[in-house]
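Handout for the seminar on molecular recognition.
Each group receives one record of this type.
Step one: identify the two inputs.
Step two: read the structure output and locate the region that could contact adenosine monophosphate.
Step three: write two sentences on what you found, then compare them with the reference statements printed after the record.
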Amino acid sequence: MRIARTHAELDALLEQHLHAGERIGLVPTMGALHEGHLSLIRAAKDACAVVVVSIFVNPLQFTDENDLAAYPRDDERDLDLAHREGVELVFLPPVAEMYPEGATTTVTVGPPLTDVLEGAARPGHFDGVATVVAKLFNAVRPDATFFGQKDAQQVAVIRKLIAELSYPIELVVCPTVRDAEGLALSSRNSRLTPEQRPAALSLHRALQDGERVLTGGGDLEVAEKQMWATLSSTPGVQPDYARAVDPETFESPRGGEVLLVIAALVGKARLIDNLVVELPSEKGNR
Ligand code: AMP
């Protein structure tokens, strides 16, 4: 496994693969790797000749300095995990390499998608995501890129970024990896105390409750209220939103698939989760 810390090093290591026309897969991460990240790496290994993992805690996508400062980092452990998965190349740039002094150019995927839910809770967050991902696409020139369904709104943003900036890149979305009790794996789970774990489990429970309402023929509003009730009735959980939306636009569902999305604060950790539900019949219209 090779490690590149600059664009020049990355170019040098990619050259032979690009020249040989090998299929290159990119897995963008912010490090603190867990089984969720590893599932993306495995999917990339299955589909590509060369897998590039980027590890970069992107300051541009943080709206809270304390959150950025508290973000878990362990490069050595991450590199060891990537190596064990057979990753060919890790791009591990310092902040100044990605955002040289004086850089002012950013990429914006426009509203409404980026203004609602996570976009409303974290203004500017998706500009940071779109900017760093566009830069990674330009640097790595992958044929395919692998993202987790765990961050469903991010997936919708990246889908638009690829389509609207005409990147010739296949977007592969991998299912959410959960622990044995249903908690979606997240680097932010490391901020949960053991006492807060039962509260964190209410997110998955709320989604299942919402799903039950919809598959039982209930309305979208009823599903939303049920999810909110499950979250707000759990001690130690401060719900932010619980919505049923269209998986691509994040506006009102048009029928077919509905995405249940929730966010809640548990202690110091802001957790998000989601579930795709197939509507039984014409339940899409409000
Ligand atoms: P992050 O390091 O949190 O920016 O995540 C990097 C990638 O891993 C993103 O595409 C995430 O959606 C994905 N990811 C994070 N957690 C999970 C999970 N539990 N299951 C599947 N993918 C995940």
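Reference statements: The CA atoms of residues 247 and 259 lie 5 Å apart. DSSP finds eleven helices and nine strands in the chain.
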